[in-house]
Amino acid sequence: MTEKDALEESRMSLGEHLEELRLRLLYSLAAVAVVFFVLFAFFSDRTFNLVAAPIIQSLRSLGYDKPYLVALRPADQFLAYLKVCGVASLFLASPVVFYELWQFVAAGLYPQERRYVRLLFPFSVVAFLVGMLFGYLVVVRYGLQFLYGFGNATLIRAMPTVNDNVDFVIKMSLAVGVVFQLPLVMWGLERMHMVTVKQFRAARRYAIVGCAVVGMVLTPDNSGVTQLLLAVPLYALYELGILLCRWSQSPAS
Fold first, then answer.
1. Is the pTM of this model over 0.90?
2. How many structural domains does the chain have?
3. What's the domain range around 89?
C-alpha cells in the first residue's frame, strides 16, 4: 500500500463526518448554553449595560444630559436581554466553539493540512475576539456618534430604541470579528498553494470593490459611514494578509 492510499484510508467516510459534526455541534451548544444560563441568571443587567454603554456614551458626547433607550413594545426589553446574553455567551464560549470547529475540519484533512489547522487555531480565536472588541470600541461608538450627531440638533432629537440599537451593536461587533479572520484565511490559502502572493497583489482593485460590498452587506443600517468604518479596516486587513504571506512566503509564490 502506498503512502497516498494510507492517507486516503485514514480519512473519514460521509457517515463518520456527519456523526463527528453532530458531536462537535452538541459540545459547542452545551458550552454556549452553560455560559448563557450563568449570564442570564446572575449577570443579565451588567451584560446589558456593557452592550448599551457605547450607545449611551455616544449620546452623552452629543450633549444629551440623561440618555436612555426606548422600549416600543412590551417584550422589547426581555428580547433585548436575551439577545445580549446570547451573543455574550457566544463571545465567552468562542474558544470552545472554535476548537470544536477546527477539530471537525481537521478530521477530514491530511496530516500536513492538520498542522496548518493546529497552527491557525489560536490565532483565529484571538483575531475573532480582537475584531469584536475593535468593532465594539471603535466602529460602533464612532458610527453611532456620527449618525446621531448628523443634522440640526435643535430640530431633531434622538430617541434610540432598545431593539434597533442593540441589534446595531451586536451585528457590527460580530461582523468585524468575522472579517478579522481575513489575513489568516489568505495565509492559509497561500501556504496550501491555492493562491500566490502575486495573485493577491494583482487582485487589489477587486479587493477594494469586495470590501465595499462586504461593508454594505454586513452593516445593519444603510448609512455610508458605518459601511466605510467596516470597509476600510477590511481592506487594511487584506494588505496585512499580503504582508503575512510575504513574511512566510512559500517557494511556489
1. no
2. 1
3. 3-180
